[in-house]
Specification:
Layout lengths: L16 H12 L4 H18 L11 H11 L4 H14 L3 H6 L2 H8 L5 H17 L8 H5 L6 H12 L8 H11 L8 H15 L4 H14 L18 H5 L15 E12 L2 E6 L10 E7 L11 H19 L7 E10 L2 E11 L8 H5 L4 E5 L1 H4 L6 H13 L1
Helix pairs in contact: 2-12, 3-4, 3-9, 6-7, 9-12, 10-12
The protein binds iron/sulfur cluster (SF4).
Iron/sulfur cluster binds next to helix 10 and helix 13.
Length: 404
C-alpha cells in the first residue's frame, strides 16, 4: 500500500503545479510494474465473469462504438439501448449518416438532450466520408480533429475498436482512479485531471488495452459506485488506497454545482384552422435546429404562483402583448392546456402551455418572422409529428392531439 498521504514537497518550489506534481508522483508511486500487472490480471478476471452483455461490446466497428459512446455521455445504459437500436436501424453505416438530413438526425436524437452532440455526429460523419473515404482513423490526434470527439471518446474508439493503447477518463473511471490513488483533491480540477490522465496512461499500457478500458469502466459502474462502493467484492481492494484508509465515501471530492435558477416560460400553440404555428430554433439558441411552438420567458408569474383567476389574467396580458410585439399577432382567445416542469442545465423551468386562435389569413409579420433568424411554418399535428422537437414541445403536441 502507499505510504504517507502527502508527498514530500520540493524545498523552495513555487506554489501551484510543482507542488501538485510532487504530491502526484507520490500518489502514483505504488502503481509501478508488478502492482500494475497484478491489478490488470485481477481486473480482467473479474470482467470475464461480470461484464454485462451490451450491443456495443459485441462489435469492433468504430462507427457503432462511436455512436454508443456519444449517446452514453449523457444518459444511462438502459436509456441509451432503444435510441442506439433505432439510430443504427436508420443509419447502419457512416455513409448513411452522412447522407441524412440534419433534421432527420435530430429527430432520432429527440429525447436524448444535448442536441449539439447529434449535430456533431452528423458533421463528423460527413467529414469522415468526404475526407477519409469513410474510414475511421485510429490515431488519437486524428480522431480528436473530428467534430464532437474529445480526448475520452478518441481513447474509447481507439482502444475498443482497434485494441490500441489509449487512456480513458470518464465519470466511472474518474471515481475509480481517484479512489485507487486516494486522491483527496477535486478530480475535475486541472491538477486532478493531470493526475488521473497520467494514471490512465499507465493502466492502458497493456496487451489488451480495449478489454482493460472496458473492465475499468465496468468496475466503476458496477462496484466502485458513487454511493456505497462494494469494496469487499472489489477485485482491486488490495491495491486501493481509499479502501485502506477508509476514505472511499469521501473520495472523489464532491463537485461544486452552480446554483439552480428558477424560470417561468410560456409556450403557445397558435392555431389557424387545422394548422399550428411552429418555429425552428435559431443557431446559437437552446435546442438550435429543433422545431417548437412559440415560446418565451414570462415575468408576470413566479415559480410557485397558483394559476388562479388573478394570476391567469396577469399572464394572459403579458402573453397577448408578447405575441403582438414579437409576431404582430392579435389572438382571440387564450387557454391554459397544461403545465410542465423540467430542467435544462442550471435552469429549473415552469412551462405554461397555452392554446390560442389566431385569425385565419393573418400571417406572421416578415419583420417578426426573421427576428432571431427563426424559420416558421403553419402545420397540422400530423405534420408536426415528423419534425425534430425538444421533449417539452413534443409533450405539448401530444397533449393537443389528445384534446382534438
Ligand atoms: Fe472502489 Fe472500494 Fe474497489 Fe477501492 S476497493 S476501487 S473504493 S470499490
Amino acid at each position: 500500500m502507499p505510504g504517507g498521504r502527502q508527498g514530500q514537497k520540493n524545498a523552495g518550489a513555487p506554489p501551484g503545479r510543482l507542488w501538485a506534481s510532487a504530491d502526484h508522483q507520490e500518489l502514483l508511486r505504488p502503481f509501478s510494474g508488478p502492482v500494475l500487472g497484478t491489478l490488470r490480471r485481477r481486473l480482467l478476471g473479474w470482467y470475464a465473469t461480470h461484464a454485462r452483455p451490451l450491443p456495443w461490446r459485441e462489435t469492433c466497428d468504430p462507427y457503432r462504438i462511436w455512436i454508443s459512446e456519444i449517446m452514453l455521455q449523457q444518459t444511462t445504459v438502459k436509456a441509451v439501448m432503444p435510441y442506439y437500436a433505432r439510430f443504427l436501424a436508420a443509419f447502419p453505416t457512416v455513409h448513411a449518416l452522412a447522407a441524412a438530413t440534419e433534421s432527420r438526425v435530430l429527430q432520432l436524437w429527440e429525447g436524448l438532450g444535448y442536441y449539439s452532440r447529434g449535430r456533431n455526429l452528423h458533421r463528423a460523419a460527413q467529414v469522415i466520408c468526404a475526407e477519409l473515404q469513410g474510414d475511421f482513423p485510429s490515431e488519437l490526434a486524428a480522431l480528436q480533429k473530428l467534430p464532437g470527439i474529445g480526448r475520452y471518446t478518441a481513447g474509447a474508439i481507439r482502444s475498443f475498436a482497434f485494441d490500441l493503447p489509449a487512456p480513458i477518463v470518464e465519470a466511472n473511471t474518474l471515481r475509480l482512479y481517484a479512489r485507487l490513488l486516494g486522491y483527496p483533491g477535486d478530480p475535475r480540477s486541472r491538477a486532478g485531471q493531470l493526475l488521473l490522465w497520467e494514471f490512465a496512461e499507465r493502466l492502458a499500457q497493456s496487451k489488451t488495452p480495449g478489454q482493460i478500458n472496458q473492465a475499468l469502466m465496468e468496475l466503476g459502474a458496477q462496484v466502485c459506485t458513487p454511493v456505497d462502493p462494494d469494496c469487499l467484492a472489489c477485485p482491486l481492494k488490495s491495491c486501493c488506497r481509499a479502501f485502506a484508509e477508509g476514505t472511499q465515501k469521501e473520495i472523489p471530492a464532491p463537485q461544486i454545482r452552480p446554483a439552480v435558477t428558477p424560470v417561468v416560460e410560456a409556450t403557445i400553440a397558435l392555431r389557424q384552422g387545422e394548422c399550428f404555428l411552429v418555429q425552428q430554433r435559431p443557431v446559437g439558441a437552446r435546442w438550435a435546429g429543433l422545431w417548437d411552438f412559440v415560446r418565451f420567458p414570462v415575468t408576470s408569474l413566479s415559480e410557485s404562483d397558483p394559476l388562479d383567476v388573478e394570476c391567469r389574467n396577469r399572464l394572459f396580458c403579458e402573453v397577448h402583448a408578447e405575441l403582438q410585439n414579437r409576431h404582430g399577432l392579435r389572438t382571440e382567445t387564450l387557454q391554459v392546456l397544461q403545465e410542465l416542469r423540467h430542467s435544462v442545465t442550471r435552469y429549473r423551468i415552469r412551462l405554461i402551455c397555452l392554446t390560442a386562435e389566431s385569425p385565419v389569413g393573418r400571417a406572421i409579420t416578415p419583420a417578426a418572422a426573421t427576428a432571431g433568424a427563426e424559420r416558421h411554418q403553419w402545420l397540422t399535428l400530423q405534420e408536426i409529428e415528423r419534425l425534430p422537437m425538444p421533449v417539452t414541445g413534443r409533450k405539448f403536441a401530444r397533449a393537443l392531439h389528445r384534446q382534438e
